[in-house]
Amino acid sequence: MCSHFRPDVMKTKELLEKTGISRQVLQQYLVMGLLKEKERTEGGHRIFGEDAVKRIELIKQMNQSGYTLRDIREVFKSGIS
To answer: What is the pTM (predicted TM-score) of this model?
Structure first.
């Protein structure tokens, strides 16, 4: 499956370009459970949906407002987001 044929998904590189975060930050979000991949390609590459862009933008806004990533994770776990 290639994201070029599915407009509702994007590969990691596309997600990084759209959101302006680094690969390391993305990895941290994934490890902390702040973000989840939608699926993987047959080759094992992560695929993300447009909802990932919105989620990252929310994380960035909350972080800029003074929330730590741990705080944000707790907010997400509580079902508020």
So the answer is: 0.84
